[in-house]
Amino acid sequence: MSELIIKNGYVFDPISGIKGDKADIAIKDGKIVDKVSAKAKSIDANGKTVMAGGVDIHTHVVGPKVNLGREMRPEDKLFRGSVRGGIVKQGKRMEMGFSIPSTWKTGYSYARLGYTYVNEAAMPPLMAPHVHEEIRDTPIIDISAMPVFGNNWFCLEYLKNKEIENNAAYIAWLLKATYGVGIKCVNPGGTEAWAWGENCVNIHDPVPYFDITPAEIIKGLIESNEYLGLPHSLHLHGNNLGNPGNYTDTLDTLKLAEGYKAKNKFGRTQVIHNTHLQFHSYKGNSWGTFGSAAKEVMDYVNKADNITIDLGCVTLDETTTMTADGPFEHHLQSLNHLKWANCDVELETGSGIVPFVYDKDSAVVGIQWATGLELGLYAKDMMRVFITTDHPNAGPFTRYPRIIKWLMSNKARLATLDSMKGKAKVIAATDLASMDRELNLYEIAMMTRAGPARALGMSNMYGSLAAGADANIAIYDLDAKKLPTDPELIEEAFSKTAYTIKEGVIVVQGGEIVAEPPNHTVWTKVTMPENTQVMRDIKEKFTKSYTVNLENYAVFDDHVYRPRAIEVDVA
Amino acid sequence: MPKVIENVGCPYCGCSCDDVRVTVSDDGKKVLEVENVCAIGTEIFKHGSSDHRIRKPRLRQPDGSMKDITYEEAIEWTAQHLYKAKKPLMYGFGSTNCEGQAAAARVMETAGGMLDNCATICHGPSFLAIFDNGYPTCTLGEVKNRADVIVYWGSNPAHAHPRHMSRYSIFPRGFFTGKGQKKRTVIVVDPRYTDTANVADIHLRVKQGHDYELFDAFRMVVNGHADDLPDVVADVPKEQILEVAEIMANARFGTTFFGMGLTHSDGRNHNIDIAISLTRDLNKVAKWTIMAMRGHYNIAGPGVVWSWTFGFPYCLDLTKKNYAHMNPGETSSVDMAMRDEVDMFINIGTDAGAHFPIPAVQHLKKHPWVTIDPSINMASEISDLHIPVCICGVDVGGVVYRMDNVPIQFRQVIDPQGLLDDETLLNKIADRLDELNAQGA
Amino acid sequence: METVTMTLVQHPELYLECYSVTPDLFAGKSLAEIADLPAHEGKIVWKLGDFFKFDGKSGATAAETRIIVNGDVHKMKRFGQQMTAGEILINSAADMYVGCWMRGGKITVKGNADAFLGIAMEGGEITVEGDATNHVGSAYRGDWRGMSGGLIRVKGKAGNDIGTAMTGGTIIIEGDAFIHVLTHADGGTVIIKGDVEGRVGGQMVKGDAYVLGKILYPLPGFKKVATVEKECDGQTYTFDQYIGDLGERKGKKKGEVIYGNIYLKA
Ligand code: SF4
Ligand SMILES: [Zn+2]
Question: What distance in Å separates the CA atoms of residue C178 and residue C196, rounded to the nearest whole number?
């Protein structure tokens, strides 16, 4: 039996309430245990920071739109450093791409940052076999994927008729068919409208033909989610993303959660996870009057304890935007004129892709950058506020260490602000320059592992160092008692772990990949009585409207790799 | 008792129809009947159980004859030659499942060679255009359910994609298109009067090789410069251009399906590129999408698989081992063969012997040549080594990508009777290369 | 300025990638160190010294280093890749990517140069005394930022894709060109002294093309607006000025629409 003990590190584990005390972490057979025998192999973590493996609640790493992004951007693989990607081969396979890394680079890079589980934020159900092929080819990190429902014809019809039970039964069926983990909703109704070249710009803007509003879709999906008691809540990307003045729409959207309470056995407390809030927190009525509404939005979020959010911080890089919000990407290409991909998916969803250069000398970009950080700094309950970049939309996930640096160091924030040409405008349109809060390592641990794991309903498996959890551990070369005064050293420490351990196996040592054990596909298996009405509806839609046969639609079992089911029973 | 297998995928054209019914013999070794499928698809299923199928690898002997060898010997021979070659090329994948394409990526990365697929001689220019201008597209069901204007530009589905018009584009009655063909306007742009043009409402006989000019003209109209149009563009009169532009701009949902007529005439990628520009323009006033009429049932597959593996869909240079490089014109198979730039060739799931220019074949023929293919073809007959494998969709299932990049799960219908599938074979070659590399290091 | 002369002693069997042959990498190195620089032939990593013998000496910096390449190097690619200063003189034909991603300095090729000459060039000067083929001063695949500065002069003819997605700098083709000149350009100047088959300025947002010969198939998206006198590579001619591509989007400056121009010798 394999045993490992990590000795004398400064441990930060919000799940078990350890706040930087020196402690030993024992591992046996891939799980965290209370103690191990004297024969256990030991790792000296003296002077280092120990946290559970990171959990990314919202990232785009596998699937058709991510991959079309890779395909359409050969220049994303051009010279960076001495070779492409700047990384020499260390694992079994080469690592390619900057903003949209290859699957191998994705797995290796997350592992180097100390992350061991990530949640793919948008799986078009029809394309699920593609998502699972990419999961197979992503090393080390466990992956779950959320099918998108907010523009799905079944849901639009059931919810219009207020048939929550039927909608829930359909969702349960689709989670099994796609091996999905939970309910994603992107620009509810707006992407269906985009199939006709239109959009739903606020929550009361009705969806063409289906005659339902985004507000009704969101409430219906919350109710369906809680009816089923899924591990995760509704995961929402609301309407009107990215536009000046959209924060009022965001507040309207968040208020839809009022009166709902989470019902589940997984310890999840929220009913909406609102993703990449940065893109939804803008003031102004034009790009000229553009400003941050982080304070207004966070004032609401801080009070509403049935909501969680992730930041979606802008990293100031050249990157690739990609979302199931088809009309948004079309709008974006009309602004920056760069290449544009779009893919509307029959009966289900759509997507768009546009490269984007977040030029730090543009005032709008500077304001976006400040907004994302402000959200984190205005937050009161860090177990409900998570670090993301909506990878790769606001920047690649490989920049998480930089976000952490900015959140932990006012000096670093001011230095970046100082380097911006539009500095004066950014200062005028945001509060950032006057915010001196600096987050501590315990808060960072909440925002990057404990919090996201709890919001996903998986804190018994991930993001935790309590006995029984998976032995996923990150050890950073950071002396928690003597944090460096140079913020760059914080970024560096979070960029390459001293060790990353995945299910008890050392996968990264000294920032280098040393092993690549197979990953898991995490999904939610709902058991409930068969709903004959829904099964009939499914058959009918496949006969009449889909172009793939029903029998070939659900992912074949042998096209899902190393599945790990979260079980839910609905009586 | 014969068994009926339903929902079988057809391993022929890019329509990747998944509604075939195949009846097989009790022992699972013979295909007895195939339904719902075009003639050519039937042929493939029948061939799968033909008595004349090659079932053993064959190695050319000093006297020129071919001798049966074992799979182990074939794997060893291939791995040794890959290991020795400075710049081996693996090309093909017109009839390979994605699992096989992923294994091929592993082989060529391990070998440090070149990896390319048939797109290089058909829809490669479409990739170049996608690189430069993006790809506003949709799945075929969107066309079926919504489209009221269909353009076939330089493509002739009546021949190349027999069920395209009936399953996806012109004839089906979809959710918002209950009247089927009656409510659809079909426009064909082609210098020839094709069978597809025959069912069109409007046929524009564009001057051969001058599609680019015609696209430019449409873009002028959409962007408000109709007044500056010359009287005739690429043999098409101004009135007809205005009429068709009007139909396009008023579409509720339009789709342009383009084919080799654009990718194989002068300017190649630029013809697609400007077609994409027109699609972007039309989205300012209507809803438009565009789609490449990919030829084979999984020729979209390698582009998808290699993009997640390396970030490039084709023309891969993996010789640097630390990173991949791609630049068609340099790293494309035909260009390299014409320049005599590779020193070993693996033809897999295609027939380079028949499709490449003769001087290219002559250059390749000077070096070791392996053909991995279920059938005998020109490539297999000039090879040093022919390794037969399963036919995807017949002896082995797997994931394939339809022309709209929708993954379709193909099924196995008959017993492979000892044949290896591409994935297994290639992984064994890669395992052996790993050993050779380790010994060499 | 110091000079390193490299003389071919061994032909590669396939093609050799000479990305190490730049004043930047030669500067400050001894001849032995230079001979040790890598060059790829397929997956084999050779040393430059396996193919060339070296004489002379390099300067302390790139700007003080001149490289003379002797022997037939038409099977060698990537001379001067990403160079920032100094000079390279190639006394024969060269293969693809001469001066690719070049930022400064000077390259002269006495013979022909193959495809991707000066792609994504930012500055400096390339002269080819023979012919060039396709993709002279064009962008790398997918990049919307093509050649942005510098000068490429081809004394012979060229193929297709001259200055694709160009944003600045000048390309002069003294002979004929085939198709696609300044396609997708957003700036820059291309001068063709011979004839062009067609597709000059397609999808062009901005930029200037000068054609002293004929355009066999002009694009519909260009319309004649004036006849002007203009200087072109040191000489003044009368040109018919066409603006376009009217099918492409256009930017505005001080309220006025900015077009791309074709100046066709009257
Ligand atoms: S259209 Fe193509 S895929 Fe469909 S049955 Fe015919 S040959 Fe097969
Ligand atoms: Zn997202």
Answer: 5
For chain C, the domains span 2-223
In whole angstroms, how far apart are CA C143 and each of A358, B256, B273, B326? 16, 25, 14, 13
| The predicted structure's pLDDT at residue A82 | 53
Assembly ipTM = 0.97
pLDDT per position as a tens digit, A191-206: 999 999 999 999 999 9
- Distance CA(A523)–CA(A137), nearest Å, equals 17
Chain C nearest-CA residue for B112: C43
How far apart are the CA of B10 and the centre of ligand 1, in A? Answer: 6
Nearest atom, ligand 1, residue B162 CA: 1
3-state secondary structure of A235: strand
Q: Does residue B20 carry a pLDDT above 90?
A: yes
State which residue of chain B sits closest to C144, comparing Cα positions. Answer: B132
Query: What's the pLDDT tens digit per position in A75-107?
Result: 999 876 555 556 678 899 999 999 999 999 999
Residue type, C123: G
Q: pLDDT digit string (tens) for A103-132?
A: 999 999 999 999 999 999 999 999 999 999
H helix intervals, A140-246: 153-160, 164-178, 190-194, 214-228
Tokens (6 digits) for A292: 């941050």
**Which residues 197-226 on chain C approach chain A with CB closer than 8 angstroms?**
none
Which among A377, A346, A276 has a CA at the least distance from the CA of A57?
A276
Joined tokens for residue B301: 């597959």
User: Quick one: which of A496, A374, A377 has its CA closest to A440?
Assistant: A377
User: Considering Cα of B339, then B342, then B343, then B348, what sign does the dihedral take?
Assistant: negative
Is the CB of residue A80 less than 8 Å from the CB of residue A362? Answer: no
Q: What whole-number distance in Å separates Cα of residue C215 and Cα of residue C193?
A: 11
pLDDT at B22 over 60: yes
What CA–CA distance (Å, rounded) separates B186 from A392?
39
| Distance to chain B for C63, nearest Cα, Å | 30
In this predicted structure, what is the pLDDT of residue B355?
A: 96
Mean pLDDT of chain C: 98
Alpha-helix runs per DSSP H in A496-565: 532-544, 550-553
Burial class (CB in 10 A: 0-12, 13-18, 19+), A570: middle
Cβ–Cβ < 8 Å for A169, A176: no
DSSP B390: P
